[in-house]
Structure formats: C-alpha cells, structure tokens
User: Which sequence fits this backbone?
C-alpha cells in the first residue's frame, strides 16, 4: 500500500504504520468529521499515548488547523461535547453548508453531521411571509436556513446556552438575517412567547422534544401550523409508538393524527435506536401534559 492513495484514513494509517508500526495504525478508527478547519476523531482510550502522533498525522494529511478527539458523551441539556485537542490549538471554526455560514467553537458546541439533510429541509419547508419559532435554536441550525429561505420570513429563536446564543447572534449577522431573527437567551419553558402566532415551530432537541409539544401548540396559529418534533425512538416500532405518545400529549385519539403526521428518519442514534423527526400539521385538538395550562 502506498501512503498517498485511498481515503484519508487509509493514507494516515499508512503513514502511521511507517513511523510507529502496524499495531498503532491498525487500531485507528476510520471515521472522522471535518468541520471547516477543525477535525473531530473518536479515538479509543487505549491509543492515548499516541494521540499527539495520530493528531499530527491527520493535521498534515487533511490540512486542518486543529484535531480534536471525543473523549466523553454529549453532556446535559446544552448538549456540550466532551473533547480534547490532540493537535493544533484554535477550536473556533466555520462550516459553510448550502450557502449558509455556521461559526462556532467545535470544542464546546456540537454540529451534528447527520443532521445536514434536516438543516437543508428547514429552509425548503418555509414559505414566504411565515413566522417561525425555533425553540432550541443552538447556533442557528434551523433558524438560519429558515430566515435565509425568503426575505419575508421572520424567526423567533430561543436558546438557553450563552455560548451557543453568542454564536446564534453572530451567525445571524454574518448571514445577513439579523434584522429578521429575534433571538432570546433563556429557557423556552419560561420565556414569554405570544400565543397563536407562529406558522412553523422547530423542536430540535434530543433525546426527545415531545414534552415541549404543548408549548409549541400554544404558540402555533390556531388556523394551522406545522411542527417539526425531534425524538429518539426504537428502530422497531418506535415511529408508531412516537405517534401514539404524541396523540396522548395532544389529548386526542390516535386516529385524529391520521394524515396529519409524517415521520422521517434523520440518522441512526446508537444501537437499535433512530433519531426521528415528526412533522405534525395542526390544529388537532387541545394539548395536555407537561407544558400545558
Ligand atoms: C444541540 S441543539 C440541537 C441540535 C441541532 N438540531 C443540530 O442540528 O445539531 C439543542 C439546543 O437546545 C438548547 N436547549 C436545550 N434545552 C433548552 C431549553 N429548555 N430552552 C432553550 N434552549 C434549550 C441547548 O442549549 C442546545 O443549544
């Protein structure tokens, strides 16, 4: 095998094998996520003594400034990644996707590669003149494509993590939509939202945004709106169970959702689980459950 052929992981593996022997090279996983000038790996802990060598090899091969490895789970409601810098230094980066610029600190904020299609779809679903509510705005994952879709769209974006909020504001500015994005730093369960005003509500939170459905329904226009509800569910039977749970939350019989929901699989989410998004057309009845009242 030559070191300058094949996919990037193979090239790095070949170079590491030359320098440090085949055992180290064999143990290196092939997966990686490039986010602008930052690269994210998931190296097993047993390779720790070689993190610096592996990071430097990737840095040279891909031409990135910084290499990170994920060393722990995504934490808490703020969905913070636990990463370590193994080569380079600066962790702020910018990803350009579908003509939209996403600036963020990759060591502190997640940018899920598997949600790419969903980010694109967010812009495609939005019609001119819509008023959009993004309950979990992050750095603008859905807010920016929605606001960029038409110059007449207005977005209300709520985000509780101050770091993500700072980038949300900055990203709205660098994408020229700051005048149409009204961002609020706070918990969407306590931020005051106008009732019955929004044509579309994004509920982009995992493991499940289902408990927030009553908040979204209250904010949605009573004549009709569309909700995009993200959740994790079992691969087998999880989609049907999710619609059943949604009917319970809405306080309607399961049959009331016939023809009103569409479910899409966004990405696999661990063994036997999928990240799903349910598109729900309202009105369907009066909400009951956690956020109701
Ligand atoms: C990581 S994002 C969603 C991921 C995103 N959809 C993507 O494409 O990668 C979820 C965001 O919701 C925020 N969040 C969680 N609970 C919240 C709450 N109750 N109120 C406001 N923001 C919240 C988190 O801080 C986080 O930035």
Assistant:
């Amino acid at each position: 095998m030559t070191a300058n052929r094949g996919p990037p992981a193979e090239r790095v593996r070949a170079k590491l094998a030359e320098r440090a022997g085949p055992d180290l090279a064999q143990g290196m996983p092939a997966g990686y996520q490039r986010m602008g000038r930052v690269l994210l790996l998931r190296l097993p802990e047993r390779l720790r003594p070689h993190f610096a060598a592996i990071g430097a090899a990737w840095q040279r091969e891909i031409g990135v400034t910084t290499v990170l490895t994920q060393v722990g789970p995504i934490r808490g409601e703020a969905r913070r990644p636990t990463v370590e810098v193994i080569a380079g230094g600066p962790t702020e980066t910018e990803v350009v996707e579908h003509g939209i610029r996403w600036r963020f600190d990759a060591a502190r904020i997640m940018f899920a590669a598997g949600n790419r299609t969903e980010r694109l779809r967010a812009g495609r679903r939005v019609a001119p003149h819509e008023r959009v509510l993004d309950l979990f705005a992050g750095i603008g994952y859905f807010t920016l494509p929605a606001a960029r879709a038409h110059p007449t769209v207005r977005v209300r974006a709520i985000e509780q993590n101050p770091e993500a909020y700072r980038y949300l504001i900055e990203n709205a500015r660098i994408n020229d939509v700051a005048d149409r994005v009204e961002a609020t730093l706070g918990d969407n369960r306590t931020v005051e939202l106008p009732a019955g005003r929004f044509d579309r509500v994004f509920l982009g939170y995992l493991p499940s945004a289902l408990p927030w459905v009553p908040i979204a329904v209250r904010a949605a226009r009573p004549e009709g709106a569309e909700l995009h509800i993200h959740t994790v569910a079992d691969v087998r039977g999880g989609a049907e169970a999710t619609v059943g749970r949604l009917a319970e939350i809405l306080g309607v019989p399961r049959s009331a959702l016939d023809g009103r929901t569409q479910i899409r699989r966004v990405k696999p989410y661990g063994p036997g689980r999928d990240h799903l998004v349910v598109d729900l057309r309202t009105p369907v009845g009066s909400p009951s459950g956690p956020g109701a009242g």
